[in-house]
């Protein structure tokens, strides 16, 4: 059994390792009083290890009622499905804001979101729940990002851009000012989307 100061990472893949590193940095650099208990993963056996942490079981087993969970799945649809699955079973979610990210004081960050190192979140930005903003991604002033959307490394949203829910923005893609991206859209790496 874990206690309220334990973080459980859901997804023991490459992104899970990154999320564990972000959490370690938060603990070390901000003195946050939680520890990483380990991973849940539906493909790796209980008792194995991933990086420095144990695999505690799969997502079908009993959840620790007082632990905090963070979803380390980097694609919107699997991310949303896992959030709904665990939320329905009473999971409480953590929000991870890396100390090396810039986050404007008037930005709003939804529960369960992950802001990676060197990301930039401008003033008046609104991020929904369970959003991922990856390393070196930039979200300019007044932009909005819908629930469970993922913005990959070095991608950029200009001012007043809007992403609906479950959107994936590929690496180095640019979403221009006032451009609106529909629900479940996938924007290819390096693409440039501009408002009409």
Radius of gyration: 16 Å
Structural class: alpha/beta
Say how many strands there are. 23
Specify the overall morphology.
globular
Strand content: 25-35%
The span between the termini is 54 Å
Order of helices and strands: EHEEEEHEEEEEEEEEEEEEEEEEE
**Could you give a short account of the major beta sheet?**
6 strands, mixed
**Number of helical segments with 4 or more residues:** 2
Unreliable segments (pLDDT under 50, ≥5 consecutive)?
A: none
Into which percent range does the helicity of residues fall?
A: 10-25%
Strand order of the largest sheet: 3-4-2-1-5-6
Q: What is the mean pLDDT?
A: 95
What does this structure look like?
There is one protein chain. It is globular, with a radius of gyration of 16 Å. The longest helix has 17 residues, at 14-30. The protein contains two helices and 23 strands. The N and C termini lie far apart (54 Å). Strand 1, helix 1 and strand 2 (35-40) form a beta-alpha-beta unit. 41% of the residues are buried. The model has no long low-confidence stretch (mean pLDDT 95). The protein is an alpha/beta fold and 196 residues long. Helices cover 15% and strands 30% of the residues.
Which key features would you list for this structure?
2 helices, globular, 6-stranded mixed β-sheet, 23 strands, 15% helix, alpha/beta, 6-stranded parallel β-sheet, 196 residues, single chain
